[in-house]
Amino acid sequence: MKLKSKILLGYGIILSLMVLVGGWGTFNLRRLGKASDAILKENYRSILAAENIIDALERQDSAILLAISDSQAQAKKQFRQGEITFLQWLGRAKDNITISGEKEILSALEANYSKYIEVIDLSEVTLDQYYADIFPLFTAIRDLCVQLREVNQETMLSASDEAQRVSQQAVWSMVLALGSAAGLGLIFSLLLAERITKPIGKTITATEKIAEGNYDIAIEVNSQDELGVLAKEINNMSQKLKAFRELNVGKVIIEQQRNEAIIQSIGDAIIVVDEALKIIALNPDAASLVNLKPQLAVDNYFLDVFENSEIADYLKDTIATGKAPSLKDDRRIITVNRGNKIKYYQFNITPVVTKENKIIGGIILLQDITNLKELDKLKSEFVATASHELRTPLTGMSMSLNLLQETTQSKLSESEIELLNAANEDVKRLRSLVNDLLDLSKIESGRIDLEFTAVEVEFLLNKAIANLKMQAADKNITLKIEDLPSLPKVKLDANKILWVLTNLIANAIRYTDNGGEIKLAAKHHNNWVYISVQDNGAGIPREFKSKIFDKFVQVKTERDVGGSGLGLAICKEMVKAHGGTIWVDSTVGEGSTFTFTVPVINNQ
Questions:
Q1: pLDDT tens across 304-352, in order?
Q2: Among 299, 380, 373, 378, which Cα is nearest to 343's?
Q3: Is the Cα torsion angle 468, 470, 473, 479 positive or negative in sign?
Q4: Ranges 34-48, 369-383, 441-455, 567-581, most confident
Q5: Candidates 2.40.340.10, 3.40.50.2300, 3.40.50.1100, 1.10.287.130; CATH matching 375-445
Q6: CA 398 → CA 390, 420, 422, 430, 435, distances in Å?
Q7: Whether pTM exceeds 0.70
Q8: How far apart are CA 185 and CA 192, in angstroms?
Q9: The domain made up of 268-368 is a member of CATH 3.30.450.20
Q10: Of 368, 314, 310, 311, nearest to 336 (Cα)?
Q11: Whole-Å CA distances, 408 to 338, 379, 400, 412, 423
Q12: 480 three-state secondary structure
C-alpha cells in the first residue's frame, strides 16, 4: 500500500469520527438554540414594549408639570409626542401576547390610560388636580407596566433554566462523544505514526550524517511506498555528493588562493574581519603596521593585534548596521609610529554582505597619506614664510602711498588721485590677505596662543554687534539678539571667538540686501553652548555648502562682495582650536545660519 493510501485511510477513520461528533454537537446546539430563541422572541419584545411605555408615560407626566409651571406650548407638544409613543408601544405589546395573564394586564393598562387621557386638560390643570386625580392614575398605569415586564421576565427566567438544562445535557453528551472519538483516533494515530515515523527516523539519521560530510550511507529499504522511494534516492544522492565533493575540493582551493592573491597584491594595508571582529585575512602591508607576519595575526581578535579602539568601534557599528561610517576626512586619519618616523593613514571601512543581504564581516582599508601630510605641512610653512616676507615691503608701500597722498594731493590731477587711491586700496587688501594667511598658518601649525577665560555669552554677542553696528546701519540692516535662555559661562579666548563672531556677522552683512535682518542666538546643550548667526540674504548654493569652510572659497554672487576667501577657513580653525565645531544651514533665496559650539566651564 502506498504511503498516501495509508495516510488517507488513517485520516479517513479520524474524519468519520469527527463527522459523527460534529453531527451530535450540531443536534445539541439546535436544541439549545431553540431554547434560547424562545427566550428572545417570545418575551423580549414585550419587555421592550413595557420599558418604552413607562418612558412615554413619564414624559407625559413631565409635560403636565410643565403645563402647571405655565409652559403650555412646550407641555402640549411633549404630551402629544408621549401619547403617540405610548399608543405605538401598547399596540406592539398587544400584538405579541404569548403567555397567560398578559392579555388581562394589557386590557387593564389600556382602560386606565383612556381614563388618564380623559381627565387631563393641560390648559386648566392645577397642582391640586394633579395630586388628586392625575397622579393616582399615573401610578396605576406604571404599576401595570411593571407587572407586564415582570411577567415576561419570569417567563424568560424559566426559559433560561430550560436552556441551561439542555446546555448541560449537550456538554456531557459532547464530552462523552469526544472522549470516545479521541480514544479511537489516538489508537489509529499511534499505529499510523509507527508505520510512518520509523522509516523517517532512519532517513533523518542518514541525512544528518550526510550533512556532517559522511557520504558512505546506505539506508535499508523495506517498503515500496514513497518512503521507500525516498530512501533509495537518498542512497543515490549520498554517492553523487561523495563524487561531487571529490571533484570540487580542488576548485575551492583554487578560489581561495585567488582571493588571497588579490588581497596580497593590493598596495594599501587591508584587513578582513568576520562578524565577531576576528581577523580572517590581511596583507603584508597591514601586518607590517604591527611588526607581525600575516600568518600570526590571522584568527586573532582585531583589538589584540591592532590596538585602536576607535576603529574597532566603527567596525562594530558597520557590521551591526550594514552601513559604512559617515566621517569627515580629518576624522578618518590615524597615526602610527614606525621606528623614528610617524606615518599617517586614512582608513575606510566597508561591510561584507552576502547575496542574501547577510552581513558576515567587514573590510578595513588603510591608505598611506604620509606624503600628502608632509606636502600640506610644507605648503603651510611656505605660506607662512611667504606671508611674513611680504608683510615688510607691503608695510613700506602702504606708508609711502599714505605719505604721497598727504604731501602731493593738491598737486595731482583727479585721475592721478584715483590711481593713487586704487593703489592704496590694493595694498590694504594685500596686507589683509597676508595677515589672514599668517593667522591661518599659525592656527594650522598649532602655534596660536589661546588665553582661556570664563566669559558670559551675552557679553560676546553684544560686543560683536557693537563692532559692526555702523556697517549694518549703512545698509539699513537690523542687527538683534534673540531672547536668550539662562546660559552658563563658557571657557574660551574672548578675542579669538569675538573675531569669529565678527567675521560671521560681517559676511552676513555683505551677503544680505538692504533692509534685511541678522539675528544672533545661543542655547545650552550638554557641555556646549551653540551660538548662531542667521541672516535672510541670498543663501548658499548646494555646490558650495561642502567646501564653504575651505581656503580661498567664495560664494559667487551677482555682485562683487570682496574678501580673500580665508575668513571662514580661519573661523573653522579657531573654533576647532577650542574643541568645537562649526557648520552652516542654508536655503537659496531664504538665507543662511552659521552655528558653532564653545565649551562650558566644567564647574558650571
A1: 888 788 888 888 888 888 888 877 666 778 888 776 778 888 888 888 8
A2: 373
A3: positive
A4: 567-581
A5: 1.10.287.130
A6: 12, 11, 12, 10, 14
A7: no
A8: 10
A9: yes
A10: 368
A11: 65, 42, 12, 6, 15
A12: strand
Domain 453-599, CATH: 3.30.565.10
Per-residue CA distances from 146 to 47, 55, 138, 183, 364 (Å)? 9, 12, 12, 54, 88
Spatial separation of the C-alpha atoms in residues 340 and 574, rounded to whole Å:
31
- Sign of the Cα torsion 76, 78, 79, 80 reads positive
Query: How do beta strands 517-525 and 478-481 pair?
Result: parallel
CA dist 361 to 266, 316, 332, 353, Å? 19, 9, 20, 8
Domain boundaries, the chain: 3-185, 213-265, 268-368, 375-445, 453-599
The DSSP element (H or E) to which 279 belongs, if any, is strand 279-282
Label residue 319 exposed, middle or buried (CB < 10 Å: 0-12, 13-18, 19+). Answer: buried
- What cell was used for 439? 593667522
SS3 333: strand
Task: Convert 481-507 to b/e letters by CB count within 10 Å (16 or more is b).
Answer: eeeeeebebbbbbbebbbbbbbbbbbb
